Structures are given as C-alpha cells and as structure tokens.
User: Fold this.
Amino acid sequence: MTSIERFIAEISPKRPILLLDADEVLLRFVERLEVHLLTCGYEIRLNSFQLSGNIYRQETGIPAEPLTVKELIAGFFDACSHDVPLVPGVTEALSSLSAPYDIAILSNIPDRCRARREASLRSQGINFPVLSNQGGKGPIVARVAAHHDAPIVFVDDLPPQHKSVAQYAPDIHRVHFVADPRLASMIDKAEHAHVRIDDWPTLTHHLRNHVME
Ligand SMILES: [Mg+2]
Assistant:
C-alpha cells in the first residue's frame, strides 16, 4: 500500500482535510539549502522566485547549469531531508488545526526520502502522514477528493501546483503560502490560488473560519 492509499483508507469522508506542502510551508527549505550549498561550493542569490539560475559557483561566480542545480537539490534531499527547521508557529498552528481537520503533508520528494522526512517532522513534534509526490499535485489531490464529503484545503508555495490542483480538483480551497520573507517579497498571489497568506497565525485563523462557514 502506498502512503496515499493508506491515507485515503484511514480518513473519515465526513471530516475536513488539510493538505500541506512541506518546503516553504512547514519547513525553512531555502534557508537550510543555502547552508548546505555553501558546503558544496555554491551560493544562492535570490534574484527571482526560483532556484534555477540563482545558484552560483562561489569560486567563479558563474551560475550553475540546470543539470547541476538538479543534482545539487537531489544531493540536498539525501543529505538534509532529516534536518530542515520548522517555520515559526507551525507546531502551535497544527495542534490547533488538528481538531477540525485531518492533516497530511503532501511533499514533492523522492520516495526514498519519504520515511526520513516523516520521522524528521515527528521528531520536531509534527506527527502527520507524509505523502510523497512527483510533478503536479493535482492528480493526487483529486484522488483524495474523490468521494470525500467535507471541505479540503490545499496549501503550497509554488504557483504551478495551484494551477495543477485547480485543473484536477477545482472545488478545493487553495492557499498560496510562502514562508521565506525574501521569496515572499518576489511573488504575487498565485493566479490559481484563492488567497495568499504568509504566516501561520493568520493561516490558522483563516483555516478555522473556513470550516465554520
Ligand atoms: Mg514547497
């Protein structure tokens, strides 16, 4: 049974579901990636809302090629999946939101890193299932939504993921959330999200109201 099949089997069709991205929603991904890349001889210069093109070889000041960026990020997940710090306010927020919602973490990480990420979150007090995905999240969200009779909320930092979910599961409430203030300042609300919120206290308030409407 895959992580998604197990989650679907265990949820109650009458309870609201909260599907949370991990990196830049629960976890300070870019901050930790920066530290890791320095140990590999690369630095991030956040000139725009993307990593590709913004990672530079320190020695030469030359931007890393797309293939190198891909390899560096894969190396980061192998080396650091277990060791990425939480965004402020997450612990309190999720303990409050687990009353009205069934919560799962829907993360685009390699399958081989899923259990490590789940264990790492658990060690930081975040004890919810981690569902691993590759590519657009719309199809997997649509699978959760099929036959579900209560509201579902999707939270992610990446605009293409909001587009994907809007396409496959249009009825789902979509929150665009960008934890890192530098990244947040570089991007407007995703076109296919319903609302933009960048901090956990405000998001908690919004999500509690959403299921009380
Ligand atoms: Mg993310």
Q: What stands out?
A: The pocket of magnesium ion is lined by residues 21, 23-25, 156-158 (CB under 6 Å). The chain is about 40% helix and 15% strand.
